[in-house]
Amino acid sequence: MAKIFVVERDGAERTIEAPDGDQLMEALRDEDTGIEGTCGGTCSCGTCHVYVDADSLAKLPARGEDEDMMLEALAEFVEVRDNSRLACQICVSDALADMKVEVAPAVE
Fold first, then answer.
1. In terms of DSSP H, where are the helices of the chain?
2. I need a surface site. Which of 16, 33, 77, 100 has the fewest CB within 10 A?
3. How far is CA 45 from CA 4, 48, 71, in A?
4. Exposed/middle/buried for 56, CB within 10 Å: 0-12, 13-18, 19+?
5. What is the per-residue pLDDT across 31-89, written as a single tens digit (0 to 9) for each?
């Protein structure tokens, strides 16, 4: 289990635990952080958009083509930053312990 620090959309901060090997999206969704994961983790809806802090971002593999395309599409509706990631594309591991993420605004 990795401890993940989360800033929710309303600014509330909390800590969750995410099982190793799970998608970060699942842990955030299951803990009612505002993440929907509508597509079930197939990188096709963008409802798991998060901003990842710089230290944690450096531990992640680069975004894939599908993730880049989904974030590009989201940019028409919400702010997409250099540290934007889709939580469905982040596999939780011990290496990500103490990761810090901010839940991005919902697409309206």
1. 24-30, 54-57, 65-74
2. 77
3. 23, 8, 10
4. buried
5. 999 999 999 999 999 999 999 999 999 999 999 999 999 999 999 999 999 999 999 99
